[in-house]
Specification:
Elements: E1 9-13, H1 17-29, E2 36-40, H2 49-52, H3 77-85, H4 105-121, E3 125-128, E4 132-137, E5 143-147, E6 152-155, E7 157-160, H5 171-177, E8 183-184, E9 202-205, H6 209-220, E10 227-231, H7 259-275, H8 280-289, H9 291-296, H10 300-318, H11 323-334, E11 338-350, E12 356-362, E13 368-373, E14 375-378, H12 392-399, E15 419-421, E16 427-433, H13 439-442, H14 450-469, H15 481-489
Parallel strand pairs: 1-2, 1-7, 2-3, 7-16, 8-14, 9-10, 9-14, 10-11
Antiparallel strand pairs: 4-5, 5-6, 11-12, 12-13, 15-16
Helix pairs in contact: 1-4, 1-14, 4-15, 6-11, 7-8
Length: 491
Amino acid sequence: MDQSRATPVIAIIGGGFTGAACAYHLAGRLAGDATTIVVFEPRSLLGGGLAYDTDERAHRINVPASRMTLVPDDGEHFKRWLETSGALADDPEAVTLDGHAFARRSAFGRYVADSLAPLVASGVIEHRRSRVRALTKASSGLWNIVAEDGSVLEADIIVIATTHPSPQPPAAVDRVLAGHAGYVPDATVPGALSSIDSEDRVLIVGTGLTAADVIATLDAGGHRGLITAVSRRGLRSRGHNLSAQEPFGEFLTPPVRSARALLRRVRDSLAEAAAAGVSWHAVFDRVRGQGGDIWRGLPVAERRRLVRFLRPYWDVHRFRIAPQLEAVIDRRLANGTLAFHAAAISAVNRSADGGIVVDFRSRHSRELFQRQVDSVIITTGPGHAAVLSSQPFLANLAEAGDLQPDAVGLGLAVDEQSRAIRADGRATETLYVAGPLARGTFGELMGLPQVTEHAVLVAENVARTVRTKLAPFSIPPGLNLERSLSDSFRS
């Protein structure tokens, strides 16, 4: 690290929720220190990202607003913002009959952006609206960043806060349907569903959260045709139990050392909870709360087994859908315009009339069945295997030996401080990974509050690196950081 520079530069690549949260908490921990925090994010909204920068009115946060926050010590932070900002004025369906608010995701994105706005306005955080094209480490120890807009920046510390890769469609499906007007290989792309007509017969490949979003979006747009949702296990995301109940069970004492032992303990806890009149939600809430410690206690081989065999079951119980989405799914199941199947795709063909013919093999009966559809939508989740090739700067770093995939296959290898582990096994002191790409070490990092807590951890470690590895810096004249930060952090 170059000790002679006037002000240390921290570059955060990715300005979705994770990157915005890192910047917010880093600014708070470096209040009084002269630093430059630059966030590279092409979207106009800091904090929106893939999840929360959406115009789809049917897309809602998946947990009550009282459990969503940018500030871990203030669980009501977002809820208060909803009440004072008027964000629910045009959203009469947001609040359930028992008073729980499931706001649109765009509202949460605006909340994060509003929280950062004073810091951006005062210059504490700089928002650069461009993607990073290349990232290399110079002999001086500084990082050279080249953005797509042609700008160049030298940084002392890098935080990679990009999201997981796009879905990877099944090869057999993609090979046959590439270029077909009704084929949607990535449902998360804005406007991806715009070409689907109201009476189209739709096949959704995948049955998790993204599939629920697609169903709700199509329904809100007036779609009334038959929707068939298929995955190998046919598991769909569950809803909430909004009654007050404490997390149930214990999964750390004694510690579990295998995926099988964890499964056995979860099943036993579910039976005990049912006997005590407690719903399954409380058991999975306890597993979620202890999840980081559970994950770190498992050998790598057992983590792989857990991901391969148990993750689908975890996902549908952990990542629950808002009551509004659940009501849409239940209604369409009841009126026969939606069906879920546990099956594998055995063949895909284009029909002479421009439609699509898909053959399936049932998971349970092994029987074959066929569907003729007009559209195929892929919602199979992130393509983790493609993480290093998903963005050019990640490929740069991998080629230079500065990054490597984690041993579980979920993202990038990092240590317990969330510093990137090089190909030679050493941690890079000035290269951090925040958010979902650090899951291989930290476990569940796909939802709140875990993502928020991890952003705080990264911010604390980066701030410590700045203070212990760089010479003290004075505050530039005319910049009142303490006032700027107090304005931003005031709730």
